[in-house]
Amino acid sequence: MTVVFDKTADSRQAFRHPEKRNRAETPLQRKPDWIRVKAPTSPAYAETHKLMRANGLATVCEEAACPNIGECWAQKHATMMIMGEICTRACSFCNVKTGLPGALDTDEPNRVADAVAKLGLAHVVITSVDRDDLADGGAAHFAAVIRAIRAAAPGTTIEVLTPDFLRKDGALEVVIEARPDVFNHNLETVPRLYLSIRPGARYFHSLRLLQRAKELDRTVFTKSGLMAGLGESREEVMQVMDDLRVAGVDFLTVGQYLQPTRRHAAVNRFWTPDEFKGLETVAYAKGFLMVSASPLTRSSYHADADFAQMKAARARQG
């Protein structure tokens, strides 16, 4: 089973005008048949929703309007989002609220750990909003959550999907010292599109973060993800793959970008399932231990099964 907590922070405009995105509206494109999913209705979905609310936890499944929420929650896989529901950045692809977050909840690590134990998770993913307002970007809070889960559910493997900790010296070291099993940070898109899609971030800083995580702990698996359909070329995606391999990244995810609202970046095009399969084939040829590439792939989608496959692939390599 899988649980997550994610995101990052950095827009002064967002601080002054919470949740306000100064962008022209763009039409929502009709989704192709291969991207459609059924509305969640199962009893297990309702049970997972009830547990999240009872523990006062936010999930990125809901906040980011993930298309896989019905499937994942029916299997009691929830992607939980720590450090609040308000992000300090205003990325043009993301549906999470933007503004000035409140103080950290010091009891949150215990509630997260309690939910992990009650769900009986074999693997959990922890992500967060961006917290540029904090001196360490929330690194110590990530570490506290990892330690709490280790105490409450020692058999659970832990994956963290962190912000970029831009200009937060020492933050990455705090997270890695807590010994997550997987360190994930998404590049999201190709460098050419960063200014319009991820303006608060820096491509080469994010790339170096992933490389540094591996340098700090050679045993940690590193992971990153890309969205397709924002205007990138196939050649640009290939170059990002090469950059990630130079940084020692083990696991790559690639999924179709879906425009949350008319105020977000428009979908440039929908990549076909065959195109995603082609990306997966190339990525494996470039040396990734694990690749997940499909229209509905998201960072934490099937993370438990993928982690098991990645461990097996490393073992085969010796």
Model description:
By secondary structure, the chain is α/β, with parallel strands linked by helices. The protein has a single domain (12-317), classed as Alpha-Beta Barrel (TIM Barrel). Helices cover 37% and strands 13% of the residues. The protein has twelve helices and ten strands. The strands form two sheets. An eight-stranded mixed sheet has the order 1-2-5-6-7-8-9-10, sandwiched between helices. The chain has a two-stranded parallel ribbon with strand order 3-4. β6 (157-161), α7 (171-177) and β7 (182-184) form a beta-alpha-beta unit. α5 runs parallel beside α6 (139-152) and α6 packs parallel to α7. The model is unreliable at 1-22 (pLDDT under 50).
CATH class group = Alpha Beta
Number of domains: 1
Major sheet characteristics? 8 strands, mixed
Shape: globular
What is the number of strand segments?
A: 10
Residues in helix, %:
25-40%
According to CATH, the fold-level topology is: TIM Barrel
Strand order of the largest sheet: 1-2-5-6-7-8-9-10
Distance between the termini: 27 Å
Number of continuous helical runs: 12
Q: Could you give the order of the helices and strands?
A: HHEHHEEEHEHEHEHHEHEHEH
Percent strand: 5-15%
Let me know the average pLDDT. 84
Radius of gyration: 18 Å
> In the CATH classification, which architecture applies?
Alpha-Beta Barrel
SS class:
alpha/beta
Q: Low-confidence segments, ≥5 residues, pLDDT <50?
A: 1-22
Summarize the structure.
By secondary structure, this protein is an alpha/beta fold.
